[in-house]
Amino acid sequence: MSDFQEPVAAEVDARGMNCPLPILKAKKALAGLNSGELVRVLATDPSAARDFQAFAAQTGNALVDQREAEGVIVTVLRRR
């Protein structure tokens, strides 16, 4: 699905969920990580890409990778 190779500490499967659930689930996963660790989020909500870009900008967590494959938006965030 994604050729992103850096290891992730957590993965959130938010496929089939609508905003704001993918963001809320990602936020909860990030809260359980150490600074610098990565979380991968799988989402199918068409607005998820834009939502995660805004979330990263507002929270200071880095959006490391984002791509879409077969209707699934894969977002990788690095905990600040």
Automatic annotation (TrEMBL):
Belongs to the sulfur carrier protein TusA family. This is UPF0033 domain-containing protein. It comes from Comamonas serinivorans. InterPro entries: TusA-like, TusA-like_sf. Residues 12-36 form the UPF0033 domain.
